[in-house]
Amino acid sequence: MANRENERDRTMTSLLRSTALAALVILGGGVSAQAANTIVVDVATGKVLSQQNAVQRWYPASTTKLMTAYLALKAIEAQTLQLESPVVMTRSAAFQPPSKMGFKPGSVMRLDNALRMMLVKSANDVAYAIGQTVGGGSVETFVAMMNRAAADLGMQDSHFINPNGLPGEGQYSSAKDLAILATTIRREFPAFSDYFSTESITLDKASINNTNGLLGRFNGADGMKTGYICASGFNLVASATRDNRTIVAVVLGAEGPIVRERLAAEIIENGFHVNPRSIRETVADLPASEGPPADISAAVCSSAGRTARANERESEEKREETFGSPYMTELDRPRNTVPVRLGGAAAGRNVEAGVSIIADYGIPVPTWRPARPGEPGAATPVSAPMPGSAEAVEEQRRTELRPGSDLLNAARQNP
């Protein structure tokens, strides 16, 4: 009995510690006015190890790309797409705002390479192109698929309007819902876990590093996706695995990437010290929310917010602990890197196998039309017959035999 009480006390202490930390996010030596929304979930059981405002609706920013990746993996599972399926950079995809790869319209890449570009670079153009590919050419169809999947997974506080998380009315989620999505991905697609833990990609001679600061610095970190827009602040869906146990954590609304990673490391570390058997509540048990998502643009993108992040970066150079966290270490090895490239895809609709760009992409194929008067091949104009002539009488007879001739005659008589 005493052991159970001690275990319960340790659990409550851990929960209170992570809750208190979420409420006192330190930034540039001061206390944040906006406490980040957080949740920590045990992947195997779905038990909520800790949470702070997890059901509040929030702008997901680029963590939206987890849903885009999920639907792409579902298509691979259903064999409607393969890893080598072509993803075409359409004009509408190429016009998406940064962050982006910047490929020309008509560029072609394999789906597996596209997924890594989207997850590491957080490329909005590639995410849009993946959405069009999975949606059968229609991003509108893909967005409908995103919302259907969210409903099927029980993500009651989520709604999507695009595949990349760019801000707009009707794009929202919550820490709870993103934890549901992340745990689903980890459970259903363990073979693809390395896609979410890729530390760096190389394209030609350029290296692009993952913005998830936990990778390589936090014990067991193995995913998943960062996100940022002014309205959302700095978001992170993170995961870590130790001794065959995986935990997912979500941080929404941190005031900077260093604060975000520090908080994520703290709550995940605490989570590994909580026995899920002592917890009853699962992530699916949390209630739904309502209303519009919170907007913290005024704090995050103000001059004060930018100054605070600059001070945080300056302080980081003087700290002994990485990101000011006792749970993180310096990355003292080369990043694990995966090469990506254009081309190499299988043949697809209007796409030849292996090409890196579609020749004459977007140029319409000419269609036949009759030659106009004056153009070569044009027919010689035929003059109207003289009134009262035999030709005029014959034309009148043929006209009267046509359906609707009475209407045609009435129009001629009353121009």
Overall geometry comes to elongated
Radius of gyration: 30 Å
Residue runs with pLDDT of under 50 for 5 or more positions: 1-34, 402-408
What is the CATH superfamily of the largest domain?
A: DD-peptidase/beta-lactamase superfamily
Order of helices and strands: HEEEEHEHEHHHHHEEEEEHHHEHH
Global structural class: alpha+beta
The total count of helices amounts to 13
Oligomeric state of the chains? single chain
Care to describe what's here?
With 415 residues, this protein is α+β, with helices and mostly antiparallel strands. It folds into two domains: 2-340, DD-peptidase/beta-lactamase superfamily (Beta-lactamase), CATH 3.40.710; 382-415, no CATH class. Helix content is 36%, strand content 15%. It has 13 helices and twelve strands. It has helices spanning 2-23, 65-77, 91-94, 111-121, 124-134, 139-153, 175-188, 193-196, 257-272, 297-300, 303-316, 390-401, 405-413; strands at 26-27, 30-31, 37-42, 48-52, 86-88, 108-110, 200-203, 206-209, 221-229, 233-242, 245-254, 337-340. The strands form four sheets. It has a five-stranded antiparallel β-sheet, with helices on both faces. A hairpin with a 3-residue loop joins strand 9 (221-229) and strand 10. The radius of gyration is 30 Å and the shape is elongated. It starts with a helix and ends with a helix. Mean pLDDT is 87; it is low at 1-34 and 402-408.
